[in-house]
TrEMBL record, chain A:
Transmembrane segments: 37-59, 362-391, 411-432, 439-461, 481-501, 556-576
Protein name (database record): Phosphate transport system permease protein PstA
Subcellular localization, as worded in the UniProt entry: Cell inner membrane; Cell membrane
Organism expressing this protein natively: Chelatococcus caeni
Example of a GO biological process term: phosphate ion transmembrane transport
Pfam families: BPD_transp_1, DUF3333
Major location category of this protein: membrane
GO terms for MF: phosphate transmembrane transporter activity
UniProt keyword Secreted present: no
Keyword Transport appears in the UniProt entry: yes
Family matches, as PANTHER family: PHOSPHATE TRANSPORT SYSTEM PERMEASE PROTEIN PSTA, PHOSPHATE TRANSPORT SYSTEM PERMEASE PROTEIN PSTA-RELATED
Family per record: Belongs to the binding-protein-dependent transport system permease family. CysTW subfamily.
UniProt lineage: Bacteria, Pseudomonadati, Pseudomonadota, Alphaproteobacteria, Hyphomicrobiales
GO CC, any one term: plasma membrane
From TrEMBL, chain B:
InterPro entries assigned: PBP_domain, Phosphate_ABC_transporter
Domain of life, source organism: Bacteria
Record-given protein name: Phosphate transport system substrate-binding protein
Species: Chelatococcus caeni
The UniProt record lists the keyword Manganese: no
Taxon lineage: Bacteria, Pseudomonadati, Pseudomonadota, Alphaproteobacteria, Hyphomicrobiales
């Protein structure tokens, strides 16, 4: 016994209670704690990025999910809506529904008589989709012809943006004093018993001061630059500096003269006064009174008590907006009449693409993606699994199968655009399949996904314990029976996982689709795999490149739809996997 | 195991593929080509579909060069009926078309697209000449001894004291873009002509290389084909300057302002009357041989040149297209309606 206690000569001693050992232990524990912290940190960082990304997309997408509509009553007459005077559906389809809406708008604003104003009223307020709404209504029930019909007309995208508050900041303040209204030719002169207009004037002066400061900064920069040059250049610079200083001085002088009246030009924030049921755009303000033009006629010129009239400031100057003050006034007037309401934009989910941002929908791309994915799945799952089963279970191991295996692995790393080129050369040019069709898209994407599925399926087959196979063979099953009845079902969860990764990859592809013509503007929702169609990622790409701001919101909304599609696809796969899951 | 059913479905699909392979008559107009003309042609396509004259045409965004290649590949329903182009058809493309049997091409000049150099509203005002833009963006510029040297300019004020003392930081389209080609031809070439007049005479090849090569030291940043992205970046970075089409400037007037080029501010009127020189004509080319074969093609052309589309107050001008002057429009309309084909000696 004592022999064992005595350490053999030359061996190191490992005490567990010595200080050294304790320090070693602490170091090991600390290393483990650090590693765990790194892990948690990495996950937290990824989670933060994900939250920031998704919330950014959601915030940007919000304006796409609502739309403003005007509830208006129009009376379609037979002459307007029918091209040949009958209620034949074909004739009703090609009627002039815009004329009906124009008459309806004219009724709402009877004072609009000049050609220019009427054109603005007809073009800038309502979407061209409003006529489609009316047409559908009339087609559904031709009996409404000649009767007053109440429809919800969609606003144009610029009007919609204004109503959503995305075009300009709005600042509303109630009048503090009693207001007097006097007519002076075309103009209206307003006075208030409280310093309402003095305050408005001060705001204008503040804007001027900011403008002057910007000019001064520019002039100072140029002065510094002028010191280093000579000759003509210097002269040109000094002229420019003098101009700027002059502008700045003028603006400062205007700002400093606190009581001097100011003209409100298009590059200053607009001020609209709501009074007596009408809207006046202020053109000139002094401390005591304001002069303006009438945008929406006043009911009367009676004096108005404090708090019963408002001044609305639009912080974005008229020159920088797509909607001018006249259209804004019409919108505000309609809002006050209670005819404007926000609705859920169901059309986003029920219509195809459009060049009018307020009418563009995702359904075409969604169906296009679904059809493409269907073709891809139907092709690549049986072929991929079949190839994997053969290579893994039946094929002899030789040079040839090694070569095939290497090539499958290489194929998985080929850039997707190459598959697009292949699709163009093979399916379109050689087989003569239709361009832009989900059928061809599905074929190309199937090629893209096949290697992924084969590799994943082989790995899944390999991971089934040999005991299963051996047991099946042992009780007399043929090789094929052993594979198809026992090995393959057990490998199914792994195969499903591989398939879903491949399909998700395919869902997000745009590059190969470009070459086979699926990056296209297509209004009609596809009905079969040979109709022209586009796909979700393509739609996102196309919308993101259009200039109208509302398309930016639609882009974000389309991204959300794509994510939802992905989640549903993954959810289905998990569900299927659960059903196939077996334990051993 | 449902393996067998999967196999049969796959077999059915393949059979369907084979059946669809037989060429089929087409009832839908197909258009390919430039992404710059895409927003306008799609608007016409949608109106055409709405009017009940036929199915709305499919408009692909393939780029001008890619579109021309597809367009000129042949006649028949396998090939597109029209192509959008942000420049005129080239002689080589025209010859290619002829070779493949696309004999009669109808040219429709749609209008103009102004190229703008713009920056954030909160940034300095720019008043640039084409020479200054050349000096700011070319890879090689004349040094002190007149020889070409690597571009030494870091700040705008290094080029001209009147320009802002800010780092040169220009966000623009990548080399694959038609917009980049136009920028090179409309700005860099005329700018270089004034500065490198001698070189142009002595060595035309070196001269072409000088204006065609944009600097790669970080002052010029490829911002991708997406103009909206450039607008967003300009909004976030007041010191940067961007290059993009006029319609984006118009839509984003609240955020960005256009630089004057050679003293002219880009706006609707200056582009339409030609005062603003950095603008390019846009075209759509149609195959005359397809009229009467593909249903509705003639009506589609009619819709495109109609007053409500191309006119001064047409819906295309509301989409940001700068329309042709009235007399030119009348001429274009007459030519297109008479289906006058483009001839080889049209000065391509």
């Amino acid at each position: 016994m004592t022999d064992i206690a005595a350490p053999p000569p030359g061996a190191r001693r490992f005490g567990l209670s010595s200080d050294e050992a304790q320090a070693r232990l602490r170091r090991r524990h600390a290393a483990e704690a650090r590693f765990r912290a790194y892990g948690i940190g990495a996950i937290a960082l990824a989670a933060i990025f994900l939250v920031v990304l998704i919330s950014d997309v959601v915030v940007k997408a919000m304006p796409a999910f609502t739309e403003y509509r005007l509830t208006m009553t129009v009376t379609p007459t037979l002459e307007q809506v029918s091209s040949d005077g009958t209620t034949d559906p074909q004739a009703l389809r090609s009627g002039d529904y815009d004329a009906v809406l124009r008459a309806g708008l004219q009724e709402l604003f009877p004072q609009v008589t000049t050609r220019a104003l009427r054109r603005k009223l007809n073009n800038d307020l309502l979407s061209s989709g409003a006529a489609m709404t009316l047409r559908d209504r009339v087609l559904a029930d031709p009996a409404v012809i000649g009767q007053p019909v109440t429809i919800e007309a969609l606003f144009d995208d610029a009007a919609d943006l204004y109503l959503k508050g995305l075009m300009t900041g709005r600042r509303e303040s109630a009048g503090q004093g009693q207001a007097q209204v006097t007519l002076d030719g075309e103009d209206v002169v307003l006075t208030s018993s409280a310093p309402d207009f003095a305050r408005a004037l001060a705001e204008v002066k503040e804007s001027l001061r900011e403008e002057a400061a910007a000019d001064r900064r520019e002039a100072a920069r140029l002065t510094a630059a002028a010191a280093d040059v000579s000759g003509d250049q210097r002269e040109a610079l000094q002229r420019r500096i003098a101009d700027l200083e002059g502008e700045a001085a003028a603006a400062e002088a205007r700002a400093a003269a606190a009581d001097a009246p100011e003209r409100l030009t298009a590059d200053l924030p607009s001020k609209l006064v709501f009074i007596n049921g009408g809207i006046v755009k202020l053109t000139e303000i002094s401390a005591s009174e304001a002069r303006g033009t009438v945008l929406v006629p006043l009911a009367n010129t009676d004096a108005v008590a404090a708090g019963r009239w408002d001044i609305l400031t639009l912080t974005q100057p008229e020159a920088n907006r797509r909607l001018d003050d006249q259209v804004v006034a019409w919108l505000e007037d309609l809002k006050q009449r209670g005819m404007v309401a926000s609705h859920f934009a169901s059309r986003f989910f029920t219509s195809g693409d459009s060049r009018e941002p307020e009418q563009a929908g995702i359904l075409g791309a969604l169906i296009g993606s679904a059809l493409t994915m269907l073709v891809t799945l139907v092709l690549c799952l049986p072929i991929g699994v079949g190839a994997a089963v053969y290579l893994e279970e039946f094929a002899p191991k030789n040079r040839l199968t090694d070569l095939i295996e290497v090539n499958i692995n290489n194929l998985a790393a080929v850039p997707s655009i190459v598959f697009g080129l292949l699709g163009l050369a093979m399916f379109l040019n050689f087989f003569g399949l239709p361009r832009s069709a989900p059928l061809v898209g599905g074929l190309v994407l199937a090629l893209l996904v096949l290697p992924t599925i084969i590799i994943a399926s082989r790995a899944a087959l390999k991971s089934v314990p040999p005991s299963i196979r051996e047991a099946a063979l042992g009780i007399g099953a043929s090789h094929q029976q052993a594979v198809f009845h026992h090995v393959l079902p057990l490998a199914m969860p792994g195969i499903m996982t591989g398939t879903i990764i491949g399909m998700a990859h395919a869902l997000g592809e745009t590059a190969p689709l470009l070459l086979i013509g699926m990056v296209a503007f297509i209004v009609d929702v596809p009905g079969s795999i040979t109709d022209a169609a586009t796909a979700l990622p393509v739609q996102i790409y196309l919308w993101s490149d259009l200039p109208e701001p509302l398309f930016q919101a639609k882009t974000a909304a389309a991204i959300l739809v794509l994510l939802a599609f992905l989640f549903i696809m993954n959810g289905l796969a998990i569900l299927l996997r659960r059903r196939f899951e077996r334990r051993w | 195991m449902n393996f067998r059913s999967l196999v049969s479905v796959a077999a059915l699909t393949l059979a369907g593929v084979a059946a669809a392979g037989a060429a089929q008559a087409r009832d839908q107009i197909r258009i390919v080509g430039s992404s710059t003309v895409y927003p306008f042609t799609t608007a016409v396509a949608e109106q055409f579909g709405r009017s009940g004259a036929g199915k709305a045409p499919v408009v692909e965004s393939t780029g001008t060069g890619g579109g021309m290649k597809l367009f000129c590949a042949g006649v028949g329903t396998d090939h597109p009926d029209a192509t959008n182009a942000s420049r005129r058809i080239k002689k080589s493309e025209f010859d290619d078309c002829q070779k493949n049997g696309v004999a009669d091409i109808i040219e429709l000049k749609v209008g103009f697209d102004g190229l703008t150099v713009a920056n954030s509203k909160s940034g300095p005002d720019f008043n640039l000449s084409k020479e200054q833009l050349f000096l700011a963006l070319a890879k090689e510029v004349p040094g002190a001894d007149g020889k070409l040297v690597a571009n030494p300019y870091k700040n705008w004020s290094d080029i001209d004291k009147a320009l802002p003392n800010e780092k040169i930081e220009v966000l623009g389209p990548p080399p694959t873009s038609g917009t980049r080609d136009s920028f090179l031809e409309l700005v860099m070439e005329p700018g270089a002509e004034k500065i490198l007049a001698d070189l142009k005479k002595s060595d035309a090849k070196a001269f072409a290389a000088a204006w065609k090569t944009i600097r790669e030291d970080g002052a010029y940043i490829d911002a991708g084909e997406n103009d909206n992205l450039i607008v967003q970046k300009l909004d976030a970075n007041p010191k940067a300057v961007g290059i993009f089409g006029y319609s984006f400037l118009e839509e984003n007037a609240a955020k960005i302002k256009g630089a004057k080029i050679d003293g002219v501010t880009p706006d609707f009127d200056t582009i339409a009357d030609g005062k603003y020189s950095v603008s390019r004509p846009l075209f759509v080319y149609f195959k005359k041989q397809h009229i009467g074969v593909v249903p509705g093609l003639d009506k589609f052309i009619g819709e495109y040149v109609s007053e409500k589309a191309l006119g001064e107050d047409g819906y295309l001008s509301r989409k940001g297209l700068v329309p042709l002057p009235a007399d030119q429009l009348t001429q274009v309309r007459a030519d297109v309606e008479a289906q006058k084909p483009l001839s080889a000696d049209a000065g391509l």
